[in-house]
Automatic annotation (TrEMBL):
PROSITE patterns: NLPC_P60
Gene Ontology biological process terms, A to Z: proteolysis
Family the entry assigns: Belongs to the peptidase C40 family.
Molecular function via GO: cysteine-type peptidase activity
The organism of origin for this protein: Streptomyces sp. HK1
Protein known as: Secreted protein
Region (Disordered): 216-236
UniProt keyword DNA repair, yes or no: no
PANTHER family: NLP_P60 DOMAIN-CONTAINING PROTEIN-RELATED, PEPTIDOGLYCAN DL-ENDOPEPTIDASE CWLO
Highest rank taxon of the organism: Bacteria
Presence of keyword Signal: yes
Signal peptide: 1-21
Length: 367
């Protein structure tokens, strides 16, 4: 514990040089993209992950002591707590996805503040209760200890790496509001992206930022192999949750297919973290705050039935042989006769024609 605290203090002392050296390239890339895509904007509520990450980096670099970080009303207090959460996870070998789960939990429970009060005897960053065995009040009010106990709880959950953020958080916290964590994923992602590399851990995959006027612009993470047609925009009238799922899925274009992959880091080095067709759907809607089951054979029962001739953006399009009760492939409808999907081994996440996977066996409307 003392060693980790010393590491955090030392890290703060060298943060300026490390952060500037580590982020110049990504900052330049983001700036160039912003110049090319003037239509892109930060959504109401300040959860544009890329913009927030840049603001956090600026705060870490100490370029402006009064800088405003969207979503963090007290950044000078909240960012050090986020550092402790991420550093503890890194020391314990917790993945970037797990760190995002912890940050989203802390944002919901305490707004990333080390609170000396809460509901009943709840305390600290994660609002853990001494009476429930989380530790003594003094221990729980140590953000490093509190983070360690949260991660220990997370590691006890079977399959947590494959769960959407809100499900994994709920499995640890057992909140009366199980869906409340989903709305914090974009900000948690931005914080992990900005802080993780400065503490020697990898950054998670970005959650796609929302765009203005019913349109979507895909940022620098999009790979040309993904073949997104020039000028594509998400159709007007698409529901907010379907839009969020599409935006996230499009940010993964070019990520390598991996059968059985969890889709927790679609463009990462670990094959198990990449996507297959159904985990791409599960993760996209998980980011949007909707829990889906894991396989095509169960996703065919999600949402409500839609006729094949009435597909709209955000629908699950199931095909690939088999029969309507047991399809072998699933894709996410984009509108304009297009889908985004993870097609097969040796290929990458791409945009293609809705009919490219053979006859449509079923369509399910999730949002």
């Amino acid at each position: 514990m003392l060693a980790l605290a010393a590491l955090l203090l030392f890290g703060a002392a060298v943060m300026v040089a490390g952060a500037i050296a580590g982020h110049n390239a990504s900052v330049a890339q983001a700036a160039a993209w912003e110049q090319q895509q003037k239509r892109r904007c930060v959504p109401a509520g300040g959860d544009g992950a890329a913009v927030t990450a840049e603001q956090v980096r600026a705060l870490l670099d100490n370029t402006d002591a009064g800088i405003d970080v969207p979503g963090l009303p007290l950044p000078e207090e909240q960012v050090p707590v986020a550092q402790a959460v991420i550093a503890t996870g890194a020391q314990m070998g917790i993945s970037a996805h797990g760190q995002v789960v912890a940050l989203a939990t802390a944002l919901q429970e305490s707004n990333l503040r080390n609170l000396p009060y809460g509901d009943r005897d709840s305390l600290g960053v994660f609002q853990q209760r001494p009476s429930m065995g989380w530790g003594t009040p003094a221990q729980i009010l140590d953000p490093v200890y509190a983070s360690q106990k949260f991660y220990e709880g997370l590691q006890k959950i079977d399959g947590w790496e494959e769960m959407p953020v809100t499900e994994a958080a709920q499995a640890v916290q057992r909140s009366a509001y199980p869906d409340a964590y989903a709305k914090h994923e974009p900000l948690a992602t931005a914080l992990q992206q900005a802080i993780g590399p400065t503490l020697g851990t990898s950054a998670t995959t970005a959650v796609g930022g929302r765009a203005c006027a019913g349109q979507t612009a895909v940022g620098p993470a999009a790979d040309p192999q993904g073949k997104l047609p020039d000028g594509y925009t998400i159709p007007r009238g698409t529901t907010p949750q379907a839009r969020a799922a599409i935006e996230w899925a499009l940010q993964q274009l070019g990520g390598a297919y991996q059968w059985g992959g969890s889709c927790t880091n679609p463009r990462g080095a670990e094959p198990r973290d990449r996507c297959d067709c159904s985990s791409l759907m599960q993760r996209a809607y998980g980011v949007a705050g909707i829990s889906l089951s894991r396989t095509t054979y169960t996703q065919v029962n999600e949402g409500k039935v839609v006729p094949a001739g009435a597909v709209r953006a955000g629908d699950l399009v199931l095909s690939g042989g088999g029969n309507p009760a047991s399809p072998q492939h699933v894709a996410l409808a984009l509108g304009d006769g297009l889908v985004v999907h993870a097609p097969a081994p040796g290929k990458v996440i791409e945009v293609t024609s809705i009919t490219s996977n053979g006859d449509i066996l079923a369509v399910r409307r999730i949002a």
